[in-house]
């Protein structure tokens, strides 16, 4: 009987998502108003029946530990678990994870007692919904010891991904990691006969999704190699030696590992028919059940807005935006294209009175403030009558006293105080 162990690769320092990763690990970054990025791969595993899940991470893991412990508790009969394995010093290993494969290698001591027959390895910073049992069944039928999930992408996206050249039997002919924009990769275009029916013809290349199924025997073999990364080293070396199967996924898939892609993926959730749909009761995305009250909307104008639990919004105009949990928005505020992550707690009347004495805003967005194309991290205090992303100012990428500008997007970091009347 198959025994599948799922490994979620939580990544390193998350430098591409900085400053959102300044005080938390990449998997713990809030997403979609009420979720965390890590909820996506965990939910895909759970919905597919794979309930033995390890998350590998090493930086700023405290908030991730708290989220996992509050969110994923299986009953004693399911034998399921979701556990975090942070980098640790052992007699055999004393350093940080040096790559995706190295992270798995350094934790084999924890994996082996489960006696798995197969390892499912998934990335922790991608947005997709996949029935992983279909991939596993194809893996078994192929007779291969390794299956790599691939998705169709256009040439501009292929530059930064691992590109697969596929054979007629769905096995991999060759694998090219991050070819760049100038290299000729025409020979890697997927044949028309192997394309999923109805797929987008503007996407001629098959890119690795960073989702792998390994036979346990093969994991033990490749972990003996002097190689630290699956995409750059392990996969290409296995392709040369033996048959590697490809599972072609034709659904929505997006890498959300950069500020721009993270922002755009959030905002696209507000579309009338979003590419990624949270409204699927058969394959839900799970997260921490907070038992918050319903959101209260007083005299508001909302258009294409996701308003999460526990918000209080008064006389505000909000367009194409995400409003995270416990967000307080005061009268006369206007938001357009804003990802607001909300707050971890409500302030008491006494705390608000203390804020007034200190001349600092309450947590939330003050009255009369106008905000465009911005990410507002948790517990930020935006004062009254602020103008963020509105005025035709020269905005240079980098760090400022009140904010960051990354990929043209204004980011207000966690717990940051923006005084009344600030113009950014």
* CATH homologous superfamily designation of the largest domain: Spore Coat Polysaccharide Biosynthesis Protein SpsA, Chain A
Low-confidence segments, given as residue ranges, are none
Number of continuous helical runs: 10
List the domain count as a whole number: 2
Structure class: alpha/beta
Please report the first level of CATH classification, the CATH class of the largest domain.
Alpha Beta
Shape, please? globular
Blueprint (SSEs and pairs):
Elements: E1 4-9, E2 30-31, E3 35-36, H1 39-47, E4 52-57, H2 62-71, E5 81-86, H3 100-105, H4 108-111, E6 118-123, E7 126-128, H5 132-142, E8 146-153, H6 155-158, E9 162-166, E10 172-177, E11 205-215, H7 216-222, H8 230-241, E12 245-249, E13 253-255, H9 259-268, E14 296-298, E15 301-307, E16 312-314, E17 317-323, E18 328-329, E19 334-340, H10 349-358, E20 364-365, E21 370-376, E22 381-382, E23 387-388, E24 398-399, E25 404-406, E26 409-412, E27 417-418
Parallel strand pairs: 1-4, 1-6, 4-5, 8-12, 14-16, 15-17, 16-18, 17-19, 19-21, 20-22, 21-23, 21-26, 22-27
Antiparallel strand pairs: 2-3, 6-11, 7-13, 8-11, 9-10, 9-11, 24-25, 25-26
Describe the structure in your own words.
The chain folds into 2 domains: 4-268, Spore Coat Polysaccharide Biosynthesis Protein SpsA, Chain A; 296-418, Hexapeptide repeat proteins (UDP N-Acetylglucosamine Acyltransferase, domain 1, 3 Solenoid). The chain has helices at 39-47, 62-71, 100-105, 108-111, 132-142, 155-158, 216-222, 230-241, 259-268, 349-358, and strands at residues 4-9, 30-31, 35-36, 52-57, 81-86, 118-123, 126-128, 146-153, 162-166, 172-177, 205-215, 245-249, 253-255, 296-298, 301-307, 312-314, 317-323, 328-329, 334-340, 364-365, 370-376, 381-382, 387-388, 398-399, 404-406, 409-412, 417-418. The N and C termini lie far apart (59 Å). The radius of gyration is 23 Å and the shape is globular. The protein is α/β, with parallel strands linked by helices and 424 residues long. The longest helix is centred in the middle third of the chain and has 12 residues, at 230-241.
């Amino acid at each position: 009987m198959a025994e599948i162990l799922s490994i979620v690769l939580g990544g390193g320092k998350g430098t591409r998502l900085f400053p959102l990763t300044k005080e938390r690990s990449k998997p713990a970054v809030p997403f979609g108003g009420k979720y965390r990025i890590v909820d996506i791969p965990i939910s895909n595993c759970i919905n597919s029946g794979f309930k033995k899940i390890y998350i590998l991470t090493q930086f700023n893991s405290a908030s991730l530990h708290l989220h996992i412990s509050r969110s994923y508790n299986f009953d004693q009969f399911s034998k399921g678990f979701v556990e975090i394995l942070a980098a640790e010093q052992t007699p055999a290993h004393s350093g940080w994870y040096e790559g995706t494969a190295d992270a798995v290698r350094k934790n084999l001591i924890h994996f082996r007692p489960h006696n798995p027959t197969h390892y499912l390895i998934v990335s922790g910073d991608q947005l997709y919904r996949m029935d992983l049992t279909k991939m596993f069944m194809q893996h078994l039928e192929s007779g291969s010891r390794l299956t790599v999930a691939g998705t169709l992408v256009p040439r501009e996206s292929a530059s930064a991904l691992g590109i697969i050249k596929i054979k007629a039997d769905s096995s991999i002919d060759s694998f090219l990691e991050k070819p760049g924009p100038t290299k000729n990769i025409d020979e890697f275009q997927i044949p028309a006969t192997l394309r999923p029916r109805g797929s987008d013809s503007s996407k001629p290349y098959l890119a690795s999704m960073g989702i792998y199924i390994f036979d346990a025997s093969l994991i033990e073999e490749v972990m003996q190699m002097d190689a630290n990364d699956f995409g750059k080293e392990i996969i290409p070396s296995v392709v040369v030696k033996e048959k590697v199967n490809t599972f072609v996924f034709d659904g929505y898939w997006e890498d959300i590992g950069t500020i721009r892609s993270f922002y755009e993926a959030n905002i696209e959730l507000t579309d009338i028919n979003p590419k990624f749909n949270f409204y699927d009761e058969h394959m839900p995305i799970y997260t921490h059940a907070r038992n918050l009250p319903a959101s209260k909307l007083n005299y508001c104008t909302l258009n294409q807005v996701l308003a999460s639990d526990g918000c209080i919004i008064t006389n505000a105009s909000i367009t194409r935006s995400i409003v995270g949990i416990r967000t307080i928005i005061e009268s006369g505020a206007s938001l357009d294209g804003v990802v607001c992550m909300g707050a971890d707690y409500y302030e008491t009347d006494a705390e608000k009175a203390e804020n007034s004495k200190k001349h600092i805003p309450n947590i939330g967005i003050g009255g009369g403030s106008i905000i465009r194309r911005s990410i507002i991290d948790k517990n930020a205090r935006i004062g009254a009558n602020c103008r963020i992303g509105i005025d035709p100012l020269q905005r240079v990428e980098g760090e400022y006293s009140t904010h960051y500008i990354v990929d043209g997007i204004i980011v207000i970091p966690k717990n940051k105080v923006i005084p009344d009347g600030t113009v950014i």
